[in-house]
Specification:
Order of helices and strands: EEHHEEEHEHHEHHEE
Radius of gyration: 24 Å
Shape: extended
Oligomer: single chain
Structural class: alpha+beta
Strand content: 25-35%
Helix content: 25-40%
Number of strands: 9
Number of helices: 7
Strand order of the largest sheet: 2-1-6
Largest sheet: 3 strands, mixed
Distance between the termini: 50 Å
């Protein structure tokens, strides 16, 4: 498959922690928004790997049905991408093996161990990454008036609510900086936003 760049694109962001030189440590992550849907993956397989469109999905559908059935039957499944096995546990503490009954055994999910072929295919590409040039976070944060305007635009675009991820994509801020700024707007005597927590997601709506 032809590639324009080596490796993955990545972003660099500061963390609150300080390094030995007194400056903020940084971390890296894949570039925001860089993802493929299954349909897009199908299109690329058709273009670069001579497969017919829909062939990959049909193979996955068959794979999921078959593996699901045989995992439920207690089989360990060895595949080119790794091994899948039932993850079992006991619902109560038992010290005598003879006391274990079918009702005591619980299916807790699936264990996955990458296979040698999978690791070889991935290792082929681990020769470096290309950096995605991020806008300067400090420059963006300096223009609070523009950010507030973008916040209102983002709310209008997403039916009256936003998340840190949405605001990050809209403004170019890191997710950490976007959440920090949104939280600031929920505080004070005249807050601009209302924060609602739904599980791990933070939802911001206009007051």
């Amino acid at each position: 498959m032809p590639r324009k760049n080596k490796g993955m694109w990545y972003e660099v962001h500061p963390t609150p922690a300080k390094g030995a030189d007194g400056k903020n440590l940084v971390y890296v992550r894949p570039m925001s928004g860089r993802k493929l849907t299954f349909e897009e993956l199908e299109e690329r397989c058709e273009k670069y790997y001579s497969s017919r469109y829909g062939e990959l999905r049909r193979a996955f559908d068959i794979f999921l049905r078959a593996v699901g059935f045989y995992l439920a039957e207690g089989y360990r499944i060895e595949t080119p991408i790794g091994t899948f096995a039932p993850n079992l546990s006991l619902v109560r503490q038992i010290t005598d093996p003879d006391e274990v009954t079918d009702r005591d055994v619980r299916f807790d999910g699936v264990e996955y161990n990458p296979g040698k072929r999978w690791n070889r295919e991935v290792d082929r590409w681990l020769d470096g990454f290309r950096r995605y040039k991020l806008p300067n976070t400090l420059d963006i944060l300096a223009d609070r008036e523009k950010l507030e305007q973008q916040m209102h635009e983002c709310l209008a675009k997403h039916s009256g609510y936003i998340t840190a991820g949405m605001f990050s994509s809209y403004t170019g801020l890191s997710r950490y900086s976007a959440r920090k700024l949104l939280n600031e707007w929920t505080k004070g005597d005249t807050p601009k936003l209302l924060l609602t927590k739904r599980g791990k997601e933070h939802i911001y709506t206009e007051i």
